[in-house]
Amino acid sequence: MARKSVCAEVATCGAVRPDFAKLGKTARGFQQAEKLVLGHAPTIAITPVSDGRGGAYEDNLARTWGMAEKVYDLLMNNVKQPDGSPIRVVVAPEIVYGARTAARAQEYYATQGVSANIWVGRSWSYSDELMGAMMGIGSTEWQQCAYGLNQTDRPGAVWLKAFTAAMDEKKRPIFCVYSPELEDEEAPLSDFVAGRLLRFARCAVAVAYMRGKNYLSIGGVSMGIIGSDVRRNAMLNYFGMGTVSVDQSIINGRLNTGFYDHEEVPKAIAFLKKFKMSMFNKPKDRRNGLSDAQLLETCAKMTLIVRDLMNGNAKLADARYAKKWGFTSNVEYAQGANAIVAGTQGQRQWTDYNPNFDVTESILNSSFDWNGFRSPRVIATENDSKNGVGMLAANLVSGGVPQLFADIRTNWTPSSIKKATGVDVSKICPRGIIDKRNSGAAALDYAVDIFKLVKGSGKMTIQQVWQAICADKKLQDKLIELAIKGTTYMNAALTYFPGDGLSSHFTSPGNMPMTAYRYNMVGELLTCSIVEGETVELPKKVADHITMVTDRTWPETYWTPREMTSFEYMSKIGPNHDGNSFGLIGADLLTFNAMLRIPVDMHNMEKEDIFRPTLWDRFGGDDYRACAFLGPVYV
Ligand code: MN
Fold first, then answer.
1. Which pLDDT belongs to residue 7?
2. Which of 261, 361, 369, 382 is flagged as catalytic?
3. Angstrom distances, CA of residue 629 to CA of 128, 204, 599
């Protein structure tokens, strides 16, 4: 007789035995899923802890659960997944006060796929002995936070300090939340406490959301740009992400064999025709000889193909659909790369003969297309994967905001502007501006002041502004209408792009808060730069001059950093591209990078906005030493 096992069903521990014989006879297909990019929903645990001694436990029972409830409601009401769906928050089955209650929590968290944990306590607890709650599967990768109540009847702070010290000793970085003011337990969480918990939660959600998903590299290195050298180990070790590479020839293969979504082609073309078009090149001057109509059609099809390469398309696996439209279905190719971010090389091998990717990048990066408002996909120009992953990080911590890819084109000081145009802009942009002008493509949302769409946006975070837009069809329609009105698709300069293309030309409105960021590789070390600032509206004469002497067909955004000259930014930013987000997300990006142990080489955040694990304080706040001591999370 088998000995009594800890597991009730000895053979399988409750898991169902698959019918292997049946599986061996089942043909594969495209398995539909609710989500575009597959992966477990980010799940945060709330672990209430308390003094286990008789009497003390009972005295703390209701108020400890009261804290957990407030944190639960705060997260559920404010933090969303980047696609707008709710995050998962799970709560320990009972208050954790010792090794066995901790083990129960752990067992439960393992079944729930927890990846971040917030400990809440108002009393003394046997700190080190509660860690059993986080010793389960993947716990070294969990993001940890502890919130200790600032009150007098029980020592929430004493527990908090004992606990974070224990975590530091174990090299488990933990974010510490403690109110500077005494807290009223009958009142809602203070702004300070709520702000820190939300920052932790949304960054932990971003970290969990990107994990296990892929960067799709379409093509290789563009014109010697080091950013487009996709560093596969860096993606894996720092972000927990995979990388998939395809040659650009796959796009021609799909164009030539009709391997795309035929029903969507006319919709895409009709949508593009809503924009102003400036087709000033002659077909005979295009190396491929495409007519204007063929150029538009090819750009539309390329957009559909890149979308399918990223996230797959059931129709491409459907033999009947394929037969109807005259191509051959292919289940393998229909799957896509489960990509959460992609890059298109474009220049030069592709663009020397074919239309460029400007329509593809500008439409996919936007929050809308011919099917209406939807989550932006993140696509990096010139396959600059290090900028692409920054755009992804910013997209995730901001709760899904589309991101602006930019060439750092020119630094203009007020004196240079005066010399070139005679106009004095020293009051408009005393610290100078960076002309951010990507070589033809940028999310069309940046043609619009999205803050003006939302009432009271001046007092809202960018996450709240974006949630307001996502919740209101009227605002979405307005955004789409303004973006279309503000954008002109213009032919490309044939000297750069012999195969032509359609650049998305617009000018971003001024006075919008905007954060610039950039990841850099230094040998094997990844670093990040984060600078907050705002867009600038230049006098028409100045803007026209800069446009005409630079490239009039490209999207342009004039930006000035806060408390820093544009020249200082130009001098210190790493490469030729940066990413940019609506809103001020510098503090979120600092926290996000600390979670992934990526040091920040330049930022302009105030001291009180820096929220990093307590372990950083043991290194005197030295981000580089703390990150080096811990190393990347996913090694
Ligand atoms: Mn570029």
1. 53
2. 382
3. 22, 21, 11
Q: How many CB atoms lie within 10 A of CB 33?
A: 12
> Ligand 1 centre from 578 Cα, in Å?
9
Which of 407, 445, 449, 578 does the annotation list as catalytic?
Answer: 407
**In percent, how much of the chain has pLDDT > 90?**
92
Q: How far is the CA of 359 from the centre of ligand 1 (A)?
A: 15
Q: Residue 440 — φ and ψ, nearest 5°?
A: 120, -20
Is residue 407 flagged as an active site residue?
Answer: yes
CA of 505 to the centre of ligand 1 (A): 15
How many whole angstroms separate alpha carbon 401 and alpha carbon 463? 8
Answer whether residue 156 shows pLDDT above 90.
no
pLDDT digits (tens, 9 = 90+) for 222-268: 999 999 999 999 999 999 999 999 999 999 999 999 999 999 999 99
The reported pTM is 0.96
Joined together, the tokens standing for residue 203 give 């960054």
Cβ(611)–Cβ(587) below 8 Å: yes
In 33-98, DSSP assigns E strands to 43-49, 88-91
Q: Is the peptide bond before 254 cis (omega within 30 degrees of 0)?
A: no
How many whole angstroms from 405 Cα to the centroid of ligand 1? 9
SS3 405: strand
Each residue's pLDDT tens digit, 3-44: 655 555 555 667 899 999 999 999 999 998 888 999 999 999
Q: Which two tokens stand for residue 535?
A: 């867009």
Tell me the domains of the chain and their CATH numbers.
43-210 (3.40.50.1070), 214-630 (3.20.14.10)
How far away, in angstroms, is 577 Cα from ligand 1 center? 6
Cα 261 to averaged position of ligand 1 atoms, centre (Å): 29
Specify whether the CB–CB gap between 301 and 259 falls below 8 A: no
Place of tokens 């996913």: 634
What are the tokens at 408? 């750092």
Residue 186 pLDDT grade (very low, low, confident, very high; cuts 50, 70, 90): very high
Q: How far is the CA of 438 from the centre of ligand 1 (A)?
A: 6
Contacts of 217 (CB under 8 A, 6+ apart): 230, 243, 244, 245, 246, 342, 343, 345, 383, 385
Exposure of 244 in the CB half-sphere (CA atoms within 13 A): 17
Q: What is the pLDDT of residue 3?
A: 61
Cα-Cα-Cα-Cα torsion 84, 216, 507, 483, nearest 10 degrees, comes to: -40
Active site residue 534: no
Under a CB-based contact definition with an 8 Å cutoff, are residues 369 and 444 in contact? Answer: no
> In sequence order, what are the residues at sequence separation of 6 or more whose Cβ sits closer than 8 angstroms to the Cβ of residue 30?
312, 313, 314, 316, 317, 318, 331, 334, 335
Q: What is the whole-number distance in angstroms between the Cα of residue 74 and the centre of ligand 1?
A: 41
Could you list which residues have their CB under 5 Å from ion ligand 1?
Answer: 407, 439
Q: Answer whether 500's CB lies under 8 Å from 355's CB.
A: yes
State how far the alpha carbon of 563 is from the alpha carbons of 171, 568, 577, in Å: 35, 10, 21
